[in-house]
Amino acid sequence: MSDTSMFDLTGKVSVVSGAARGMGRSMALSLASAGSDMLLVDLNEKDLKSTMKEIRSMGRKVDYSTTDVSEIDRIPALFEHLDNTFGRVDFLGNVAGGETVFGAPEDISIADFEQSIKSLVTGRFLMCQEAGKRMLAQGRGSIVNIGSIGGVSSLGRGQIAYFAAMGAVVQMVRGLATEWASRGVRVNAILPAQVLNPGLSERIEKTPEVLDTFLRGIPAGRMGQPDDIKGLSVLLASDASAWITGALIPMDGGNLALNAGGSYPGSPAASG
């Protein structure tokens, strides 16, 4: 196998949720550029069709579904559609996540807490389960769950439900990796820090000081961009990562490496 062929996804089929915009779109485009056929999943049909059009222009077979992956009863039908259209799945990119609830830990309701777990954990698990069954039958496959640095460290800010959910995703990845590694299925997680998206950009526009708060914790000195996920996506989907499973890979510009009291050249806190 040549150095470049390790990354070749020709003949593979990938499923990517959240593929209309942001990291999901960037992941889907990177996999297609490496040769993979695609099933794209997102509620945003207009932008999803735009992603599909771009992938089709690469000569790939591509289809889409507007399944809401937080509505767990709909996920089995999504994979039946996959079976009928492609007949296999080699890679699952679990990018989409539902809404979470913000609030002080002493005030948040149990109903809201449980809804965050359902939206961010249960749907991801069922996606893994459905894809995993098919990959195990094939004897190979790769799954990537998008988690967060908030799954392994706390940022405060009234996000207790989100952090609990992301911590569950981290342990789910480790558990699935352990259960399935000997049967040829790899499961890993990418843990982003703050990656720019329309919602976050709007928040920064309304409260510009929050940008300094974020950048104090990012030694790379910039916010994340959706395209930062492209290289990792192809690596983890391909044979180049054949012995990587159960990994929690920060995509954070050095955030987790930085001590709470640290600074870096050019940091807003460098004079401290």
Question: What attributes does this structure have?
Answer:
Rossmann fold, seven-stranded parallel sheet, 8 helices, alpha/beta, globular
Structural class, from secondary structure content?
alpha/beta
Q: What is the ordering of alpha helices and beta strands?
A: EHEHEHEHEHEHHHE
Q: Report how far the terminal alpha carbons are from each other.
A: 51 Å
Q: Quick one: how many beta strands?
A: 7
What is the CATH topology descriptor?
Rossmann fold
- Number of helical runs? 8
Kindly provide the radius of gyration, computed on alpha-carbon positions and rounded to a whole number of angstroms.
Answer: 19 Å
What is the correct CATH architecture? 3-Layer(aba) Sandwich
* Widest sheet, order of strands: 3-2-1-4-5-6-7
Short characterization:
With 272 residues, the chain is α/β, with parallel strands linked by helices. It has helices spanning 22-33, 45-56, 75-85, 110-138, 160-180, 198-206, 209-215, 230-237, and strands at residues 13-17, 37-41, 62-65, 91-94, 141-146, 185-192, 248-251.
Present the secondary structure layout:
Elements: E1 13-17, H1 22-33, E2 37-41, H2 45-56, E3 62-65, H3 75-85, E4 91-94, H4 110-138, E5 141-146, H5 160-180, E6 185-192, H6 198-206, H7 209-215, H8 230-237, E7 248-251
Parallel strand pairs: 1-2, 1-4, 2-3, 4-5, 5-6, 6-7
Explain how this protein is built:
The protein has one domain (9-251): Rossmann fold. Helix 1 runs parallel beside helix 2 (45-56), helix 1 (22-33) crosses helix 8 and helix 4 runs parallel beside helix 5. The protein has a 7-stranded parallel beta sheet with strand order 3-2-1-4-5-6-7, sandwiched between helices. Strand 2 (37-41), helix 2 and strand 3 (62-65) form a beta-alpha-beta unit. The protein is built from 8 helices and 7 strands, in the order βαβαβαβαβαβαααβ. The protein has 272 residues and is of the alpha/beta class. The longest helix has 29 residues, at 110-138. The protein has helices spanning 22-33, 45-56, 75-85, 110-138, 160-180, 198-206, 209-215, 230-237, and strands at 13-17, 37-41, 62-65, 91-94, 141-146, 185-192, 248-251.
